[in-house]
């Protein structure tokens, strides 16, 4: 049952209003006005989302709210409505985006307190929120693509926010272009679906409409799903398109928290889940999703272990965690993927905001080598970040445990023991690298530059309150999805069940040996980190020396950036500049044109000589012409 | 109630031209205001036409038909349908904007504005003429002022550029003229009337259609410009003054694809169906990819935009070649969107050229700090050029690609993939000019003036509006285009039947 509910329109419009205010009234209204309006509109959007949720739960299960604003595109039989849809899946995404988003906006008020460009910053932040909300509220694929590219644009603008630094500007551009590769895949995926349906005379791009056309979609499902997944690997930073995310960390840290950890980068997971009906038609494509997810999770975790920049560790951690979500979706456990998406939004936003608090306090210092011992001077940051670390490691009863556990159990149950093993090992690596980070920043001797060390303290309340709220969510956020049999067990899955394709296989019962392994492994990881970085600091150095090759491989991130540059970027530019521009355009075509022009000029000179004024010459030419024409007609008559 | 809207909108500039020529020497500075007033009068007429255009029918509207040269069956025959109406609007808009973009011209203003007005009449005439002879007259009328505007008011290599432009276009004109005569003399009832020529399309033999089609194609392809007839365009753009580039990219290029839709498709439908996939589909795809690749290699800001313009015209060709209602609607919408977006881009190039007197992309840096509004406006136009959703080009490019996907999937993959290259060269260019540390040489530059903003804001508003409400144009054009597409598809079907 679908009910019309106009307030859905307010959810993206409120942040859009914030954009207009910050853009046109930001300078005149002053910092204080922007500081109230920008977080305020996101908070209001959160309120409207809650209102919509209240309306949604009053509908019978499987219901949805819908708001069709106007007929957007109509050309021939193809038509697209500017319409929003709010079902259980959207509800969760909306609450995460606006809830976590509002907290990060509030935090930003403090973080950007000294930046002259606060108005531009909040313009972009609100625009991002609006785009993300359009993405998750979209009723059809094309509206979703509006949000999809919109968040990419804002990501570009915010990575290159401090654009006077050429490296930052470069990183922003890199992010947008890599994402564009994915977007091209997304578009081609849409075209494939439109084509498949049009063959059967059906012209629709709405999720509800498409989901009823399994028979028409079937023959093209694998192609469409793989193309769309290419889009997902771009936005969600999965292999092979993850390369932009680590470099995106040069943006202001609240941006990293909101866009590059909690919301935008999960868009790919959301899209695969939203199109679950298509992906389940293409088991091969689903397997690709699962394998890419698992491999990315492992691969990124290994890189995270050796990074020394605090934000880069978190960036690779994000790539790795999204890999888990993809793994969940790939094995058909869509709701587990979304569950992890939600808990991850809490603890990863928190990790970034804590890192931001440290960086802010240390005047932009991001190297963990110049941190250490901050526990005493920044207790709130320490405690909240520790909470987040426990959550991401998957230690019960913190949020991350429940969601990660669900994904891994589903992986095992679906008959992918290898992927399960990769996931479990990665869980150990996760615990290791995150506690390495905690120990290097908060424990041990202080390595902070003396000039900065004197005045260290926790951030002001406008920044710490969001930390505390997120810390509470990182503890309790997972309890909505307790294992089956515990209290309200699996409430999260039951809420999503009518919208999300149910997993093919039954989940393993909790308390089995598997569950114990999944509790034990992270603890081993934590212990290893404590041994390596707190007890025997010489050990990592020794290991790095013994395994020099591996260490260098990891430090250089497997040389993937270098590879892409050498194989794609440079040859492409070379062909453009030398073969096409100088060769085809310059030498061949213009050579011909200029040659013709010159010949004409010379020919003109020659022809002028024929204008001799000599009547006999003219008569001769006339005769030649007449004979030629006569010969032509004779030829035609004879031949035909 | 206007009785002769099309005559009025076409010939008002001619009146303006006479007024400018009669302007006494002492009042020369007034010339630009006469031009502004003239084009300013065109706008309300265009709005009137927009409001009174009946989009429910594919029939010719606002017809004016009078015998002109009886012996040769030449008529003064004006009229518009969905194919031309959006181009009439675009021409009125771009001409108005380009007058204000011309205010930095100081040399021989009188001649400049007089020629600009003549150009306006020629362009408008091409879009409203339905008699082939009249169409051709307007076509030629438009070429001469263009030649002089580039050749006299252009940059250092203006003569080379002007002659190159002229030779290319002359070749095109000759071919169009020959086909016009061939069509006129075909059969017993001699006529230049395009509607009648189309009505008897079934009687032309396929070979005749093919020859005419190819000759016309070359004539029109030069204007688009389609690969490999495109090399006049970058040179012309680089030498032309800003406003002339705006007109060139904004309106003149559309003549090529308009001609194909107005002449090739309805009059030679069977040949169109047979040949379009190579000459429009494949060549269009080459345009898209090739234009983007070569744009990437440019060091001159204006040349980069010129190649980008070539690339984006490729989408128009690809959409026309798709033979789907979706694709052809997208193509004509793309013609309009290309007009507004490239006009913005060339104005933006002009802004910096007027201040810095060079266009070397690597010679700037960090301008966003010094000229934030200018940089913001450029960013807007660049993202519009990249086809960002929410801005107009997204709709038209997606429609083109959806249409083309039905018939030419491989070409569509290249068309969609080029969006990556487009983002690549535009953002790279943006970074080099606007981002990074400010080049100290330019720490004295001023941001957009009110006049410059006045030329950009209306275009930006239209780009934004059409991104969210493309129906404003699609609603106008779709009946005629669906009909035209059906004509071509039907002709192809009956031709196949006849062969059997």
Describe the model.
The complex is a heterodimer of chains A (640) and B (500). Chain A has three domains: 2-555, no CATH class; 556-609; 615-640. Chain A contains 26 helices and three strands. Chain A has helices spanning 10-58, 88-111, 118-137, 141-159, 166-199, 207-211, 214-217, 221-235, 244-247, 253-262, 267-274, 276-279, 283-304, 310-330, 334-361, 379-393, 399-413, 417-442, 450-453, 461-476, 491-496, 513-535, 538-546, 548-555, 560-610, 615-639; strands spanning 2-4, 64-75, 78-86. In chain A, a hairpin with a 2-residue loop joins strand 2 (64-75) and strand 3. In chain A, helix 2 packs antiparallel against helix 10 (253-262) and helix 8 (221-235) packs antiparallel against helix 11 (267-274). Chain A is globular and about 110 Å long. Chain A starts with a strand and ends with a helix. Residues 504-510 of chain A have low confidence and may be disordered. The N and C termini of chain B lie far apart (53 Å). In chain B, helix 9 crosses helix 12, helix 10 (242-267) runs parallel beside helix 12 (301-321) and helix 12 runs antiparallel to helix 13.
Please tell me how large the radius of gyration of chain B is. 22 Å
Strand content of chain B: under 5%
Secondary-structure-based class of chain A equals mainly alpha
How many whole angstroms does the radius of gyration of chain A measure?
A: 30 Å
Shape of chain A: globular
Question: Helix and strand succession of chain A?
Answer: EHEEHHHHHHHHHHHHHHHHHHHHHHHHH
Main sheet of chain B? 2 strands, antiparallel
Helix content of chain A: over 70%
Which stretches of chain A of 5+ consecutive residues score pLDDT under 50? 504-510
Low-confidence stretches of chain B: none
Give the topology string of chain B: H per helix, E per strand: HHEEHHHHHHHHHHHHHHHHH
Q: Walk across the major sheet of chain A and give the strand order.
A: 1-2-3
The count of DSSP E runs of length 2 or more, i.e. the number of strands of chain B, is 2
How many helices of chain B? The count is 19
Question: Would you tell me the structural class of the helices and strands of chain B?
Answer: mainly alpha
| Amount of helix of chain B | over 70%
The major beta sheet of chain A can be summarized as: 3 strands, mixed
Count of helical regions of chain A:
26
Please tell me what the overall shape of chain B is. Answer: globular
What share of the residues of chain A does DSSP label as strand, in percent?
A: under 5%
């Amino acid at each position: 049952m679908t009910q019309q509910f106009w307030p859905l329109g307010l959810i993206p419009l409120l942040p859009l209003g914030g954009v207009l205010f910050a853009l046109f009234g930001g300078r005149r209204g002053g910092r204080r006005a922007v500081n109230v309006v920008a977080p305020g509109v996101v908070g209001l959007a959160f309120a409207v989302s809650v209102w919509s949720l209240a309306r949604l739960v009053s509908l019978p299960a499987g219901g949805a709210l819908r708001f069709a604003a106007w007929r957007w595109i109509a050309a021939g039989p193809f038509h697209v409505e500017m319409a929003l849809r709010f079902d259980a899946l959207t509800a969760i995404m909306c609450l995460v985006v606006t809830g976590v988003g509002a907290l990060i906006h509030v935090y930003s008020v403090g973080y950007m307190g000294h930046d002259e460009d606060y108005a531009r910053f909040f313009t972009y932040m609100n625009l991002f929120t609006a785009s993300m909300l359009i993405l998750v509220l979209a009723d059809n694929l094309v509206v979703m693509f509006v949000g999809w590219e919109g968040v990419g644009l804002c990501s570009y603008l915010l990575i290159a926010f401090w654009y006077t630094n050429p490296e930052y500007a470069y990183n922003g551009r890199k992010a947008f272009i890599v994402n564009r590769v994915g977007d091209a895949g997304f578009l081609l995926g849409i075209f494939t679906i439109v084509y498949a349906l049009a063959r059967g005379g059906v012209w629709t791009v709405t999720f509800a409409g498409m989901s009823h056309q399994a028979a028409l979609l079937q023959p093209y499902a694998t192609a469409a799903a793989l193309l769309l997944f290419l889009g997902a690997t771009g936005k969600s930073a999965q292999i092979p398109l993850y390369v932009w995310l680590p470099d995106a960390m040069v943006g202001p840290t609240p941006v990293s928290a909101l866009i590059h950890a909690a919301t935008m980068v999960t868009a790919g997971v959301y899209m695969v889940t939203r199109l679950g009906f298509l992906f389940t038609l293409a088991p091969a494509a689903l397997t690709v999703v699962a394998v890419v997810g698992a491999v990315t999770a492992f691969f990124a975790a290994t890189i995270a272990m050796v990074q020394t920049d605090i934000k880069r560790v978190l960036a690779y951690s994000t790539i790795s965690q999204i890999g888990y979500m993809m793994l969940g979706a790939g094995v058909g456990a869509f709701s587990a993927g979304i569950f992890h998406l939600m808990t991850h939004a809490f603890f990863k936003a928190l990790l970034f905001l804590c890192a931001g608090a440290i960086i802010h306090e240390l005047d932009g210092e991001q190297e963990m080598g110049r941190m250490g011992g901050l526990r005493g001077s920044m207790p709130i940051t320490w405690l909240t970040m520790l909470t987040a670390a426990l959550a991401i490691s998957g230690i019960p009863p913190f949020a991350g445990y429940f969601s990660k556990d669900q994904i891994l159990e589903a992986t095992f149950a679906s008959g992918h023991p290898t992927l399960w093993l990769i996931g479990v090992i990665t869980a150990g690596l996760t615990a290791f690298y995150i506690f390495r980070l905690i120990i290097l920043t908060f424990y041990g001797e202080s390595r902070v530059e003396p000039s900065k060390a004197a005045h260290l303290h926790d951030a002001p309340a406008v920044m710490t309150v969001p930390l505390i709220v997120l810390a509470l969510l990182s503890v309790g956020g997972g309890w909505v999805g307790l294992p089956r049999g515990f209290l309200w067990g699996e409430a999260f899955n039951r809420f999503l069940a009518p919208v999300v394709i149910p997993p093919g296989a039954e989940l393993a019962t909790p308390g089995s040996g598997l569950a114990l392994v999944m509790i034990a492994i992270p603890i081993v990881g934590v212990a290893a980190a404590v041994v390596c970085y707190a007890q025997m600091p010489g050990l990592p150095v020794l290991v790095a020396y013994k395994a020099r090759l591996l260490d260098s491989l990891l430090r250089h991130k497997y040389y993937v950036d270098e590879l892409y540059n050498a194989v794609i970027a440079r040859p492409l530019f070379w062909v453009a500049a030398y073969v096409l521009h100088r060769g085809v355009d310059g030498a061949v075509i213009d050579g011909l044109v200029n040659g013709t022009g010159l010949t004409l000029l010379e020919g003109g000179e020659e022809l002028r000589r024929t204008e001799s004024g000599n009547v006999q010459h003219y008569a001769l030419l006339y005769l030649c012409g007449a004979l030629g024409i006569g010969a032509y007609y004779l030829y035609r008559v004879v031949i035909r | 109630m206007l009785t002769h809207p099309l005559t009025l909108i076409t010939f008002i500039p001619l009146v303006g031209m006479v007024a400018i020529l009669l302007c006494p020497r002492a009042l020369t500075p007034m010339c630009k205001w006469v031009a502004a007033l003239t084009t300013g009068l065109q706008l309300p007429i265009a709005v009137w036409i927009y409001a009174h255009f009946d989009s429910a029918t594919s029939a010719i509207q606002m017809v004016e038909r009078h015998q002109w040269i009886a012996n040769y069956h030449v008529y003064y025959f004006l009229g518009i349908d969905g194919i031309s109406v959006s181009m009439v609007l675009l021409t009125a808009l771009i001409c108005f904007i380009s007058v204000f973009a011309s205010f930095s011209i100081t040399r021989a203003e009188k001649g400049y504005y007089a020629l600009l007005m003549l150009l306006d009449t020629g362009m408008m005439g091409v879009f409203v003429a339905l008699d082939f002879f009249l169409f051709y007259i307007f076509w030629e009328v438009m070429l001469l002022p263009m030649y002089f505007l580039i050749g006299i008011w252009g940059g250092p290599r203006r003569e080379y550029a002007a002659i190159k432009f002229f030779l290319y276009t002359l070749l095109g004109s000759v071919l169009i003229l020959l086909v016009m005569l061939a069509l006129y003399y075909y059969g017993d009832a001699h006529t230049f009337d395009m509607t009648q020529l189309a009505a008897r399309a079934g009687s032309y033999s396929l070979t005749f259609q093919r020859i005419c089609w190819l000759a016309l194609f070359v004539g029109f392809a030069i204007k688009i410009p389609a690969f490999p007839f495109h090399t006049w365009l970058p040179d012309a753009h680089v030498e032309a003054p800003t406003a002339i580039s705006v007109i060139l990219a904004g309106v003149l290029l559309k003549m090529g694809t308009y001609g194909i839709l107005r002449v090739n498709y309805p009059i030679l439908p069977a040949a169109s169906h047979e040949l379009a996939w190579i000459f429009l589909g494949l060549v269009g795809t080459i345009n898209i990819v090739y234009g983007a690749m070569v744009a990437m290699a440019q060091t001159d800001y204006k040349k980069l935009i010129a190649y980008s313009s070539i690339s984006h015209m490729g989408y128009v060709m690809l959409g026309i070649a798709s033979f789907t209602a979706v694709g052809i609607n997208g193509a004509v919408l793309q013609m309009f969107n290309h007009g507004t977006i490239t006009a913005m881009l060339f104005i933006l190039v002009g802004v910096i050229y007027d201040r810095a007197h060079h266009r070397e992309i690597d010679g700037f840096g960090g301008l966003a700090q010094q000229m934030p509004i200018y940089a913001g406006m450029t960013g807007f136009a660049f993202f519009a050029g990249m086809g960002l959703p929410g801005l107009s080009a997204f709709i038209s490019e997606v429609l083109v690609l959806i249409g083309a996907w039905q018939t030419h999937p491989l070409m569509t993959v290249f068309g969609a993939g080029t969006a990556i290259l487009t983002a690549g060269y535009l953002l790279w260019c943006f970074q080099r000019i606007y981002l990074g540390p400010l080049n100290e040489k330019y720490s004295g530059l001023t941001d957009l003036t009110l006049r410059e903003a006045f030329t950009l804001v209306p275009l930006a508003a239209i780009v934004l509006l059409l991104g969210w409400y493309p129906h404003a144009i699609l609603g106008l054009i779709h009946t005629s285009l669906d009909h035209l597409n059906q004509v071509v598809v039907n002709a192809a079907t009956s031709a196949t039947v006849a062969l059997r």
